[in-house]
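Bumping with the actual sequence this time:
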Amino acid sequence: MIQPVKLSVVILNWNGRALMEEFLPSVIRHTPAGIAEIAVADNGSTDDSIEMLEEKFPAVKIIRLDRNYGFAEGYNRAIRRIKSTYTVLLNSDVEVTPDWIRAPLHVLESDASIAAVQPKIRAQRNRKYFEYAGAAGGFIDIYGYPYCRGRILSAVEEDRGQYDTPAEILWASGACLFIRTETYLKEGGLDAVFFAHQEEIDLCWRLRSRGYRIVCTPSSVVYHVGGATLSTESPQKTFLNFRNNLLMLYKNLPEKETGRVFRIRFWLDCMAAVRFFLAGHPGNASAVFRARRDFKRLKNEYAEIRAEYRKKATHPLPGEIRRQSLLYTFYIRGKKKFSQLQVESEMDF
């Protein structure tokens, strides 16, 4: 009888033939076949991605989805078909390195309370620097603004080894997310309504609230292109980021924080829209208000989900959430490096 592998590396694809041709060889080369399988979950691609995989990478498992379910539901459907103990959610534009699996897998196997792990993520096109949406592990402030060890808002640091200590974090980047398969499924996976953007932060906050731990292991390094699906100036990306962030706050914030946070977020979002408009991006400014309208529309649908989350939360406001405003710290106090915030929790592995 064939025993299931310990780890499944799942790459979600939608019309990404060129990216897979560029980056899949590194995944195959540096992923030991004895303990891991590589699977591409195809989100109903209309290009010849599947034909290319069958021809050039026949050892790669293909999970065929009937249409584009987005990042969140695409992974949910794919992971339901996974039989391994651990799953890696890996973007198609990620280049991995030798031993990239070793440290994250060791951490997961060493402590059952750790649900998810991410490696250190550098920018693939500017390799000395951290990658914007992951770096060396993620956090948020009380108003929902994400930041990382190595990136505060728009300020991305050069990696000089300053965050090479393993640390407990609030969220692990969906670009390369190691997670216990059973935990992922038990705790509901990614929120399908999000479609894409910030769904991994929402999942990790949910896990932290329920007592699980999230860790970054910087001895494992991968390189991420980032922005391969939607450009940084895309109004649709702005819409999804703002709407999903509001949904995430509504789902996860303790009751005593919700009113104050949402009152302040209203004005912060208005300022963000004005800033987009003055920068010559009226479509993005409009997207902020569209996001708020859609959040208001969805809010009633999420009332029961919010009640369920509050009931299951053993840590209502995890310690990795910064209580002070990140915008104030960055723009007024001028602190633009993670090391200046003094919030990380180092670990000894």
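The tokens above came from a reply further down the thread. Residues 255-278 form the longest helix (24 residues).
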